[in-house]
Amino acid sequence: MSHAPFDTQAALQAVLASWAERRWLRPLDAAFADFLWREVPDAPPFLILAAALASHQLGRGHACLDLAATLQAPALALSLPPEGEEGRDVLATTEPPPLPAEVLAGWSLDRWQAALDHPLLVGCGAGDTPLVRVGPRLYLRRYWQYEQDVHRAIERRLARSATLQAALPLDILRPILDGLFPPAAAGEAGASWQKMACALAACSGFCILTGGPGTGKTTTVVRLLALLQALALAAPLAGEPPRPLRIRLAAPTGKAAARLNESIAGVVTRLSLAGFEQAEAVRAAIPVKVSTLHRLLGNRPDSRHFHHHAGHPLALDVLVIDEASMIDLEMMAAVLAALPASARLILLGDKDQLASVEAGAVLGELCRHARAGRYTPATRDWLAAASGERIDESLVDEAGSALAQTVVMLRHSYRFSAASGIGQLAEAVNAGDAVRVSEVWRHTHADLALLPLDAADETRFAALVIDGAVAGPGANPAPPAGLAQTAFRYGYRHYLTTLSEARPSSVANQNAIDDWARRVLRAHGQFQVLCALRRGPWGVASLNQRIARVLCAAALIPASAGWYPGRPVLVTRNDYGLGLMNGDIGITLALPPAADQETKLRVAFPAGDAGQGIKWILPSRLQAVETAYVLTVHKSQGSEFGHVALVLPATPSPILTRELLYTGITRARAFLTLVMPGPSRLLDVIVQRQVLRASGLLAE
Ligand SMILES: Nc1ncnc2c1ncn2[C@@H]1O[C@H](COP(=O)(O)OP(=O)(O)OP(=O)(O)O)[C@@H](O)[C@H]1O
C-alpha cells in the first residue's frame, strides 16, 4: 500500500480544489498553486502542496511554512479545519475533504525537503525563484526578502552601539539620568528598569522597551527623549552648532496613534526637569503629535510602496513607534528602509499581545528572550556605571546577543497594584499557569468578575450590556461591599444616556456640538464587549445583533438595524480620503436640526492626529464599517476601555490562545467581566495554548 496516495498531480489537485471549495484555503492560495503548475507542469505534487500551504500560512500571519511543525501536528500548525468547522460536516451533501494529517501521512521531513529540491521553483537565498527554502522553513520570496531586510537593517543599527556608547561620556550621561530618575522614584520597584532602559537606549541605534499595561513605557520614553534632547543640546557633534534632534512619534494604527496623542502631551507637561540646564528648550523639543506609520511613510493610493524609502529617506533623527506588537513584517521592512542610517529607532510595545494579523510577529520575535535578559557582563558593568543600577545576576549571560543588550522589559505595573485581579489574572494567563488562573478566581477582587452565562439567559445578558451588572447564580465572586466600585462599572446605558441628555438644543454652536460628541465618545470608552470569534452564537456578528435587540427593547436606541443615533461603528479598512483608519470607532449622532431642516445623522470620530478634535462623517460615505457593540479581541488591540466584558465561546477553537486571552484581559483599565458560556476548564485549555508564529527572523 502506498504511504502517500495523494502523491500524484491529479490527486493533489483534487485535494487543493476541495480545500479551496470549503474555504479552507483562500482563493489566492489555490490560484498560486495553479500558477506554479501552469508554469512548471512537472513540479512535484508535494512541492505545490507546500507552496499552497506557505501561502495559506501567510494569510494566518506566519512569515513562512514550517515543514517540521506541519508534519508534527498538521491540524494545529495549519489550523485546518478552520474555526467553526471542527468535527462537523458543514456541507453534508459533499464528501468531507481529506484532513491535512491524512494527506501528509507517511511523509518525513527529509522526503518533503527533497521534493522541494527544484531549482526553477525553490531557491535557498537570493535569486528569482518564487519560493525560498531555509532549512525546514519555506517562504514566498517576498517574505523571505522582508525577513532578510529587517534582520540586516537591525544588525546594522546594533553595530553602531559601540560607537554611540564610546561617544557618550558617563560624566555627562549619569547626572542627566539621575535628574530624570530622582532617588525617591528609584527606590520603587521597577523604576530602576526604566532608568536602565533609558541608559541602554541612549547608546543604541535600535532599542525595544517592552512591558505589560501600565509598566511605564510612555513615561520612560518621554524621559528618554528628554535625555536625548538634553544630550543633543548640551553636547553637539564636533563642529556642529547645538540643534534639537528631529523626533517623530508614530503608531501602526489610527486608534493607537490617537491613544498616544491623548496621553503624551500630559506626560511631557508633567515631566520634572528640575536641575536641567535648558529645561524648557528640552521640553519644547519633545514632540506630542503622533501619526500613523502609513502617514509617516507617505502612503500612495493603490500601491504597496511608500513615498519614503531607502532612496528618499525620512528626515528625522529619532523615530519612536508605540504599540509595536502590531507591526507586521512588511511594514517593519518599509520603516527600516525609510530610516536614515544615522537615525535611532525605538520600539514600544507589549511583546505578549497578539501580533498583527498580517504576516510576521516582529516584536514578539525580537523580544523572545526579553524575560531572561541575557545581558553580557560588559553591559551589566556599563549599566552599573551609567545608571547606578545593578542587574540581577540571573539575567546575565556571557553569550547574550547584540540584540539582547538593547531590549528592556519593564516588569512592574503601576496601573495594577499587587492586589488587582486584572493584573494577577493577566500575569497568570501570560505565564500559561492554569493553576494560578483558577487561584485568582478563588479570591474576591474589586476589579474582576466571572459570569457563567447560558445562551438563553437573556436577563443576565441584558443586565451586563446595559448596566455592566454582574449578578445572579454562579456569578463569581461578587465584590464585598467595602470593595465594590460600581462607579466605573458601566454598561452601554452610560454613553446612550450621555448622548440623549447632553445633546445641545441648537446646531448653531459648533463648539457645543463637538463637545457633546467628545463626551459621548468618552462615555462610550467606559465599556466595551469583546469576543474571540467572528462566527457562531458567541461570535461578533450574532452578539452585535443580540446587543442591538437588547438595547432597542430597553428603548435606549430607536432601531436595531441600519443607521440610527447611538450606533457605534468600527472602521474596517483605511480610508485616506476621509482620514479614517482601520480600527477607528465612531458614534452615530443626530445633529440638532437647523431652522427648517430635518435632523441630520452624522458619525462622530475622534480626529486622532489633531488631538481633541472631532471628525463628522456622513453615514453614506462610510463604505467599510461594522456595528461595534462587540469587537473581536484582534480589532480591540491598541485600545483600552474602563470596563471590558470579554465573552468567550462555549467550545474550544484554534483561535483561542493565551495571547488572545491576555490581550482581551489587558484591554480593561478598571474592571473586567469574563463571560463564560462554556465549562470553566475551557480556560485551562486556552491558557496552555500559545500562538507559535513560524519565522526565521532570529534564526541566522
Ligand atoms: N516610575 C514611576 N513611578 C511612579 N509612577 C509611574 C512610574 N512610571 C509610570 N508611572 C505611572 O504609571 C501609569 C502608567 O504609565 P504609562 O502610561 O507610562 O505606562 P504604559 O506602559 O505606557 O501604559 P500602556 O499600557 O497604557 O501603554 C501612569 O499613571 C504613570 O504616571
TrEMBL record:
<keyword id="KW-0547">Nucleotide-binding</keyword>
<keyword id="KW-0540">Nuclease</keyword>
<dbReference type="GO" id="GO:0000724">
    <property type="term" value="P:double-strand break repair via homologous recombination"/>
</dbReference>
<keyword id="KW-0269">Exonuclease</keyword>
<protein>
    <recommendedName>
        <fullName>RecBCD enzyme subunit RecD</fullName>
        <ecNumber>5.6.2.3</ecNumber>
    </recommendedName>
</protein>
<dbReference type="InterPro" id="IPR006344">
    <property type="entry name" value="RecD"/>
</dbReference>
<keyword id="KW-0238">DNA-binding</keyword>
<feature type="domain" description="RecBCD enzyme subunit RecD N-terminal">
    <location>
        <begin position="21"/>
        <end position="139"/>
    </location>
</feature>
<dbReference type="GO" id="GO:0043139">
    <property type="term" value="F:5'-3' DNA helicase activity"/>
</dbReference>
<keyword id="KW-0347">Helicase</keyword>
<dbReference type="InterPro" id="IPR041851">
    <property type="entry name" value="RecD_N_sf"/>
</dbReference>
<dbReference type="Pfam" id="PF13245">
    <property type="entry name" value="AAA_19"/>
</dbReference>
<dbReference type="InterPro" id="IPR027785">
    <property type="entry name" value="UvrD-like_helicase_C"/>
</dbReference>
<dbReference type="Pfam" id="PF21185">
    <property type="entry name" value="RecD_N"/>
</dbReference>
<dbReference type="GO" id="GO:0003677">
    <property type="term" value="F:DNA binding"/>
</dbReference>
<comment type="similarity">
    <text>Belongs to the RecD family.</text>
</comment>
<feature type="binding site">
    <location>
        <begin position="211"/>
        <end position="218"/>
    </location>
    <ligand>
        <name>ATP</name>
    </ligand>
</feature>
<keyword id="KW-0067">ATP-binding</keyword>
<dbReference type="GO" id="GO:0017116">
    <property type="term" value="F:single-stranded DNA helicase activity"/>
</dbReference>
<dbReference type="InterPro" id="IPR050534">
    <property type="entry name" value="Coronavir_polyprotein_1ab"/>
</dbReference>
<dbReference type="GO" id="GO:0008854">
    <property type="term" value="F:exodeoxyribonuclease V activity"/>
</dbReference>
<comment type="subunit">
    <text>Heterotrimer of RecB, RecC and RecD. All subunits contribute to DNA-binding.</text>
</comment>
<keyword id="KW-0227">DNA damage</keyword>
<dbReference type="InterPro" id="IPR049550">
    <property type="entry name" value="RecD_N"/>
</dbReference>
<comment type="function">
    <text>A helicase/nuclease that prepares dsDNA breaks (DSB) for recombinational DNA repair. Binds to DSBs and unwinds DNA via a highly rapid and processive ATP-dependent bidirectional helicase activity. Unwinds dsDNA until it encounters a Chi (crossover hotspot instigator) sequence from the 3' direction. Cuts ssDNA a few nucleotides 3' to the Chi site. The properties and activities of the enzyme are changed at Chi. The Chi-altered holoenzyme produces a long 3'-ssDNA overhang and facilitates RecA-binding to the ssDNA for homologous DNA recombination and repair.</text>
</comment>
<dbReference type="GO" id="GO:0016887">
    <property type="term" value="F:ATP hydrolysis activity"/>
</dbReference>
<keyword id="KW-0378">Hydrolase</keyword>
<keyword id="KW-0234">DNA repair</keyword>
<dbReference type="GO" id="GO:0009338">
    <property type="term" value="C:exodeoxyribonuclease V complex"/>
</dbReference>
<keyword id="KW-0413">Isomerase</keyword>
<dbReference type="InterPro" id="IPR027417">
    <property type="entry name" value="P-loop_NTPase"/>
</dbReference>
<dbReference type="Pfam" id="PF13538">
    <property type="entry name" value="UvrD_C_2"/>
</dbReference>
<dbReference type="GO" id="GO:0005524">
    <property type="term" value="F:ATP binding"/>
</dbReference>
<feature type="domain" description="UvrD-like helicase C-terminal">
    <location>
        <begin position="628"/>
        <end position="675"/>
    </location>
</feature>
